[in-house]
Amino acid sequence: MMGPIVVMLMLIASLAAATPPSALAPLPTNATCVGSIGPGIAPPARVPNGIAGFHASWYGQSGYMSLCAGERATATVAYFNSGSRGWVSGRLGEVAYLGTWNSEPGQDQPSILGGDGALGSPATGWPRFNRASVQPTAYVGPGQIAWFQFSVQAPSLAGTYRLGIRPLVEGATWMEDYGVFWVVTVLNADGSAPRPTPPSPTGVTYAIGEGVGASDIAEVHEGTAHAGAYLAASAGGDRRNAVTVNVRVGDGTERFCCLTIGPSFEIVTSNLAWSSPPAAAPDTWTPSTERKELAAHEYIHLWQYELGGSACMLGPRWISEGMAESLAYRSLVDAGLIPAANMDVFTKRQLRNARYVTLRSLETSWPSDANPFAVGYLAVDRMLARNGPLPLRDFCSRVGRGESWPAAFAAAFGQTPDAFYASFEVFRSEYVR
């Protein structure tokens, strides 16, 4: 009876020993931020044993990390060999690794937290960009414990980052335990904790294509997470039905970087609108922030589709696109990624450099030289949603139930489209002066 108790005590002690502040890589000499690692997570009281084939059970891990930008630390996770076959180092079909897993960055996908330098992953000593660690001993037999270790590096921006991992026998099978993940909090420059980045919304499946970079994956996740959190808190609720987010490199023939079709949207990372987004500027926000907005924009379309189907998502274009722009940017302003004043800097510049067209004409046409996304944004954000986004939800629900869009507009916003068009043109002329 003493064997399991000794193993348990050794595990807890080892977890504690694996996470002292001294395990952190040194910071620049002028830094005021100080990183730390939380307490280890103890193993479960019981785990399966002797299951036929290759199997693994999570058996504790070192604590979650709070790191300063650019700082490195070592993570430790224990897996109990709960199968009937041993894990043999260096032998394909028998050697155990930790692989990247869902939801972020996804199965076999690169992470911005660690890797081998490939596909935008930082070179932190992983065996491959999608393999965080290999078994530490030559043989791990049934009933034995493997202590996997891997290094992570904090990204440059403060926030909450996640790394999903899962054990596998390379060339044979993925093993349990799924659902294991690491949370890395990147502290502000002064060492204070940032506002937590929300997790990915529930019910979202990410289908990541071959060759997609680590930063693209992270930006799509963060954009959808901020949009979902904002809808849940401020727009009467997030979407609930299952949706799919497809992210692929593309072949250069795609017309759009970002497109929503029904309950799914697609991001093409090679498209210039994604890789070099024109909305980014030194006096507004970074290209990375704009890519998060692009993902958030498409996520809002999923919300529209669930509420009102195509009648909302593909209705009068200035409303459907303006709503997606408004709610997406609001989610990033709310998260602290964009200063609210910068929205006016950006919008006024877009309108002043555009060919004038009436808002009414943007019900069906969408001329690029008119910067119609900015016009739609201004109409929705500064007019229809000036008191909050709930009327937008009401509008989508109404057209989804079969009301004509003019009738739904009048009921949701308290004025006819004609009256709104007249007041908006006056507002726009004063706004751009």
Structure write-up:
The protein is of the alpha+beta class. The chain has two domains: 2-186, Immunoglobulins (Immunoglobulin-like, Sandwich), CATH 2.60.40.10; 204-431, Neutral Protease, domain 2, CATH 1.10.390.10. Helices cover 34% and strands 19% of the residues. It is built from ten helices and 16 strands. Strands 1, 3, 6, 7, 10, 11 and 12 form a seven-stranded mixed sheet that branches. Strands 13-14-16-15 form a four-stranded mixed sheet, with helices on one face. It has a three-stranded antiparallel sheet with strand order 2-4-9, covered by helices on one side. α4 (287-313) runs parallel beside α8, α5 packs across α7 (372-384) and α8 (390-400) runs antiparallel to α9 (405-413). The longest helix has 27 residues, at 287-313. The radius of gyration is 25 Å and the shape is elongated.
Q: What are the SSEs and their pairings?
A:
Layout: H1 2-17, E1 36-37, E2 56-61, E3 65-67, E4 72-81, E5 87-88, E6 96-101, E7 131-134, E8 139-140, E9 145-153, E10 159-169, E11 173-174, E12 180-186, E13 204-208, H2 214-234, E14 243-248, E15 258-261, E16 264-268, H3 272-275, H4 287-313, H5 317-334, H6 340-352, H7 372-384, H8 390-400, H9 405-413, H10 417-431
Parallel strand pairs: 3-12, 13-14, 14-16
Antiparallel strand pairs: 1-3, 2-4, 4-9, 5-8, 6-7, 6-10, 10-11, 10-12, 15-16
Helix/strand order: HEEEEEEEEEEEEEHEEEHHHHHHHH
**C-alpha geometry:** elongated
Major β-sheet, in short?
Answer: 7 strands, mixed
**Global mean pLDDT:** 92
